[in-house]
Design brief:
The structure holds 3 protein chains of 3 kinds. Chain A is mostly helical. Chain A has a domain of 228 residues: MetI-like fold (Orthogonal Bundle). Helices cover 75% and strands 0% of the residues of chain A. Chain A is flat and about 80 Å long. The radius of gyration of chain C is 26 Å and the shape is globular. Classes of the chains: A mainly alpha, B mainly alpha, C alpha/beta. Chains in contact: A-B, A-C, B-C. At the B-C interface, helix 1, helix 8 and helix 9 of B face helix 1, helix 13, strand 16 and helix 14 of C.
């Protein structure tokens, strides 16, 4: 007797081909969404200038002597006598060609100024990211596996205290103890060459790690603890799987989704926190450049950096989003994510 | 499905909270608030009172916590600094919560085009880390506390809105809301008088946690020299001024305000998380 | 006959001192099915779990539990793992929760084979295919690469069974495996379980709250209450001649469709009370001639459009009528459209076509505007399925009822309070319940509050959407009795939605059977049960567990 139940199986869509095209559709959708958001972001970044009351020339030349030559140069360069939409269009076209304007403080193309400082910041972010992920996961897994026991409580307390240490406090404390007090590390500068740079960037990376390891640790812990309460973990246990296998294949594996989701905001937070850490350690990276440019009213540079950070964040998020079905197969089908 | 005792017992959350920690945190917070509010009356010295005879002095009966590089009393400066350090985050939390809840309610209750437009708006705002928006605000409007505070309200509102929206959407499908409808209550009334009060505690607890982040970020902004300007005392600004002194071994002028920041944030976080746990609302994924 | 599971004097105490099991003794032999029956809180699930060492962390167990000769209590971790790997296996209530949604079905089935028994991938795969075929799944090859969300509940339960059988256990523990399934699917799963048990000579411990089910498939039955075994013995004997008082109450409270064994007739047809109607209210509604039909649904259709998927026709051309004071049952499985129909009648959804008349007044559209909303509310009210979510968690019970009164009538505070207490009294609750928040009330008490709330403004029709499905058997019986008595006192008309024919039989004069949005049969309940006309009704009746 054909049951209502098994008939469903025969009417399921053909696997194989169905999945590939579903993936491509999702991909197209996500990319479209990304581009739309990116476009809106550029609008926001560009037109924010117009929120400031007064003459745009005055604004760009704040703090500098507004002699007629400078005014004419700036007006020509930024097309300030053109209608706003035209200015915006020029700006976007320029960016697509790699032209981000000229820095007012360095009198160089913004692109050059930023590119010079990029490697340092990238290295700092990379070192920090690795430390954060490794230590955060370790702490979170340890706390989750030993939940309710002393190891868990200690980890939680440590994380709570660490989370209260902002990056600038962390920097100062690390400098005070390890650089000045013990003299193990240099107090400022970024160094030359790969290993020297890594040496110089150790303390700054630690300062960043202190802040963000908490995020990863807590998310890992809570996601895993939530999974422990789920029935499929019990089923796996009932089948005789060893403790380690259960944790690996069912607890941690299912906890991946919220952990990975936090990755995007993590990167964004890291990028911005570099501005504080680089300032404290006197490192000439993008973050420091941002602060300097705000201080010296070099708006073109500020604009470019903001756009860069936001774009990087959106890209990371989009990649995580697109790869989501690998972690959670339910999202591929658009099924509810519970 | 009738939950069996076995499942209920197996899944009961553990982690017994040490209430001693909670009470200590509350006391610490109260101390900060009283110290900050009562600074004009309670601080032993004026925050600007320089004394070149006692530069970078250690703790003494005259100066309980020592002095900074201009001989100003650190205890007094820290007390006065608490004013800007605490008011800023408070304004941000209140502002972002109010705006965020209203927007989240609008998006979550009705759905439709309002939700789509707001979703897109939030997407754009989410792309900007909060500190970045604050920095942008300073770049546009100049240094100080006002611009960053307003900017951070705008930066944090989407987070509150997203949470509110998710909660409202979840509540909307619950039978008790349908029951109200069947009884004859109107949609807006149900949303404002019955659904919102049910979700406010959860949103409020989350906002309380944001207080800690905002405090750290605003202090960081002042540390960069972009927020509160010297000579106004502020914990972040104080640390900035004390930077130079560290190389020569004068740690106190930096450590004292640093400890103040850390203590305040820890206390707020503990209280906030405790509130969150007590309220125990389910935060939908 | 070899004893596969031997439980003697089992006790279980939580770390905080609460004792949940007080000395359980039972046994399961090879080739027999033993039922473990009880209501929520009886400890049946806990008892079963100890066989596999799955007790709550930190709990202390006393007594003895031997599985295939091996002692579980006090055993080392390796010992327990050995039992789980070779001697016993368990299937759980909710297959969707029990199978890891992030891994394929193939992974779920071959996991233990590969990791525990260290078989090669091909061997494991072959075995998995074998098992999938044994549980009668149509396309084993394809299923291996599919994910759980692509399967229906019934299919997933078969997968769960297949997974449990990979280790060729001697004892199979089944924890409410069919509770979350439709009655027809349940019948199929039971058949799969029975055939597998037969083929492998396993002993089966079957946990359920459904006495009918236990009596129909088990050889012996143990009845549990409050952590103790109250009665045990041959299944039919316990069901037909229970010895203990609790068992007798349980049997009496269990609704059944067996017309032969339980000839308690449902309420007589056409009983019209029509009393208790407040005369002052008749001025609000025009009543030239009192209509004889309380509810008149004609040709109602409702279709749901979904993005990217074909539209769902939830209700197709539904027509039904209930006379004043009558009770009509709507029976169907999941996807039959019965809940949608209820929501349309009540005004939560709007029908795409057809008309609805309540007490003669046109009510086809979802009400717009305050006056129409209030008028609609006065004509029909609803009691929902989930007692935990249908009351506002913040509002005390008394106030929940009071709010409705204040919305529709202008009463003074004192008058309103008095009426609230009257209503609570009518549903069997007292003054202390009026102050209580829903959190502190039991499931049955909450449903009573919901009923009080619903009848507060004296609607023409009361719709009960699976209102007792989430309650324990004995509580359900009490609530059904309450509904019957309220109906008699106040002349209420009831539209009763349920998936359970036995329950419908207790309440309703007439019954309507729905399937995939259509009404396939209708008629007086007793007649329908005795002599069904439509093949689907016959299928439903055949699927219901009986103690034949």
């Amino acid at each position: 007797m054909a049951s209502a139940d098994t008939v469903t199986a025969r009417t399921l869509p053909a696997v194989g081909g169905g999945r590939a095209s579903a993936f491509l559709r999702r991909l197209a959708g996500k990319l479209g969404s990304l581009l739309l958001t990116l476009w809106l972001v550029t609008l926001l970044v560009f037109f924010s200038r117009f929120l400031v009351p007064g003459d745009p020339v005055r604004f760009l030349l704040r703090g500098r002597r507004p002699n007629p030559d400078a005014v004419a140069a700036v007006t020509a360069e930024y097309g300030l006598n053109l209608p706003p939409w035209q200015q915006y269009a020029n700006w976007v076209v320029g960016m697509l060609h790699g032209d981000f304007g000229r820095s007012l403080q360095y009198r160089q193309p913004v692109a050059t100024v930023i590119a010079d400082r990029m490697p340092t910041t990238l290295m700092l972010v990379l070192i920090s990211a690795v430390l954060i992920v490794v230590l955060g996961l370790a702490a979170g897994i340890l706390a989750a596996v030993r939940r309710g026991k002393p190891a868990d409580r200690i980890t939680l307390i440590a994380l709570t205290v660490l989370s209260a240490i902002p990056s600038f406090v962390g920097s100062i404390v690390l400098i005070a103890i390890f650089a000045v007090g013990l003299g193990w590390f240099p107090t400022f500068g970024s160094g030359q060459g790969l290993f020297d740079m890594a040496y110089h960037l150790t303390l700054p990376a630690l300062a960043l790690t202190i802040v963000f390891v908490v995020v990863v640790g807590k998310v890992t812990r809570s996601a895993m603890i939530e999974q422990y309460g789920r029935e499929h973990v019990e089923v796996a246990r009932s089948r005789g799987l060893s403790r380690g296998a259960v944790v690996r294949r069912h607890v941690f594996r299912n906890a991946l989704r919220p952990i990975v989701t936090v990755g995007g905001p993590l990167i964004a937070g890291l990028l911005v926190a570099t501005s504080i850490v680089e300032s404290a350690f006197g490192i000439s990276g993008i973050g420091n450049l941002l602060v300097q440019s705000v201080d010296r009213l070099d708006f073109p540079v500020v604009q470019a950096i903001v756009l860069l950070v936001v774009t990087a964040f959106l890209l990371v998020n989009a990649v995580i989003d697109i790869l989501e079905p690998l972690i959670d197969p339910r999202s591929a089908a658009g099924a509810s994510a519970r | 499905m009738i939950p069996t005792t076995a499942l209920r017992v197996l899944r009961a959350p553990r982690i017994p909270r040490a209430t001693a920690t909670l009470w200590i945190s509350v006391v610490v917070l109260l101390m900060f608030v009283i110290a900050a509010a009562g600074a004009p009356l309670l601080a032993p010295y004026s925050p600007d009172a320089v004394d070149f005879a006692a530069i970078n002095a250690g703790p003494s009966p005259a100066h309980w916590l020592g002095t900074d590089n201009l001989g100003r009393d650190l205890l007094s400066r820290t007390m006065w600094g608490g004013r800007t350090a605490l008011i800023g985050p408070l304004a941000v939390v209140i502002g972002s919560t109010v705006v965020g809840m209203l927007l989240g309610l609008a998006a979550g209750w009705r759905g439709g085009w309002v939700d789509s437009v707001l979703a897109r708006l939030f997407d754009v705002l989410f792309a900007f880390p909060s500190l970045l928006i604050a920095i942008m605000a300073v770049a546009l409007f100049g240094k100080g506390l006002v611009a960053p505070v307003i900017a951070m309200c705008i930066a944090y509102a989407p987070y509150v809105a997203r949470l509110t929206r998710a909660l409202v959407q979840a509540e909307r499908t619950r039978p008790y809301v349908s029951a109200y409808r069947v009884q004859g209550f109107g949609g807006p009334w149900i949303a404002l008088h019955r659904v919102m009060p049910n979700i406010t505690p959860v949103v409020g607890a989350q906002s309380a946690l944001n207080f800690g982040y905002v405090l750290a970020e605003l202090a960081g902004l002042s540390f960069l020299g972009l927020g509160v300007q010297p000579p106004t005392p502020d914990w972040g600004a104080m640390i900035n001024e004390a930077q130079a002194g560290i190389v020569s071994g004068a740690f106190l002028p930096a450590i004292v305000p640093a400890v103040a920041v850390v203590l305040a944030v820890v206390a707020v976080n503990i209280v906030g998380e405790e509130m969150s746990d007590r309220i125990g609302g389910e935060v939908p994924a | 006959m070899t004893t596969i599971l031997d439980v003697r004097g089992l006790t279980l105490t939580l770390p905080d001192g609460t004792e949940l099991l007080h000395g359980i003794s039972l046994h399961v032999d090879a080739g027999e099915t033993v039922g473990l029956v009880g209501e929520s809180g009886s400890g049946k699930s806990l008892t079963a779990r100890t066989a596999l060492g799955l007790w709550p962390e930190g709990a202390a167990c006393g007594g003895s539990v031997t599985v295939d000769g091996r002692e579980v209590i006090g055993s080392s971790e390796t010992g327990i793992l050995a039992i789980r790997r070779t001697a016993a296996a368990m299937i759980f209530q909710d297959p969707r929760a029990g199978i890891n949604p992030m891994r394929t079905i193939g992974d779920h089935l071959t996991e233990t084979l590969r990791l525990v028994e260290h078989r090669s991938a091909q061997e494991a795969r072959a075995r998995a295919l074998e098992l999938l075929a044994a549980v009668q799944l149509p396309d084993p090859e394809a299923h291996l690469t599919q994910f759980p969300h692509e399967f229906s509940g019934g299919m997933l339960q078969r997968v769960m069974i297949a997974g449990a059988l990979t280790s060729s256990p001697r004892l199979l523990v089944c924890d409410e495996p069919t509770t979350a399934l439709d009655v027809t699917t349940q019948a199929e799963i039971i058949q799969v379980l029975a055939s597998q048990r037969e083929a492998r000579g396993m002993g089966m411990l079957f946990i359920t709250h459904d006495l009918n089910l236990a009596a129909s498939i088990c050889d012996r039955v143990c009845v549990m209450q409050g952590g103790e075994v109250v009665e045990q013995g041959d299944a039919r004997q316990v069901f037909f001649s229970p010895v203990q008082a609790y068992t007798q109450r349980l049997v009496a409270a269990t609704p059944t469709v067996d017309v032969a064994t339980d000839p308690t007739p449902s309420p007589p047809v056409g009983e019209r009370a029509g009393v208790g109607r407040d005369e002052t209210q008749s001025q609000a509604r025009p009543r030239a001639t009192a209509p004889t039909l309380a509810l008149d649904v004609s040709g109602v259709c409702k279709t749901y459009l979904r993005r990217g998927k074909p539209p769902v026709q939830a209700v197709r051309d539904a027509t039904l009528r209930i006379p004043r004071g009558g009770a009509l049952g709507v029976v169907g499985e999941s996807g039959s459209g019965k809940s949608t129909l209820a929501r349309v009648v009540v005004g939560l959804e709007q029908a795409d076509a057809g008309t609805i008349r309540i007490a003669g007044a046109e009510s086809s559209r979802a009400p717009r505007g305050r006056t129409r909303r209030l008028a609609r509310a006065k004509s029909v009210q609803m009691v929902f399925q989930d007692p935990y979510l249908s009351l506002d968690p913040r509002i005390p019970a008394g106030r929940a009822v009071e709010d409705v009164l204040h919305l529709h009538m202008s009463l003074s505070r004192a008058d309103a309070r008095r009426r609230v207490l009257e209503l609570l009294d009518a549903v069997g609750l007292g003054e202390r319940h009026a102050q209580a928040r829903p959190k502190t009330l039991s499931g049955g008490q909450r449903q009573r509050v919901a009923i009080a709330r619903a009848i507060a403004i004296e609607p023409e029709v009361l719709v009960m959407d699976e209102a007792t499905s989430a309650l324990d058997v004995s509580v359900q019986a009490q609530v059904l009795d309450l509904v019957a008595s309220i109906r008699a006192e106040r002349g209420l008309t009831v539209l009763f939605i349920s998936h359970d024919l036995g329950v419908v039989r207790r309440v309703c004069d007439e019954t309507v059977v729905m399937r995939r949005g259509e009404i396939v049969e209708h008629g007086p309940t007793e007649q329908l049960l005795r002599d069904p006309q439509h093949a689907y009704t016959q299928l439903l009746l055949d699927s219901v567990p009986r103690t034949a």
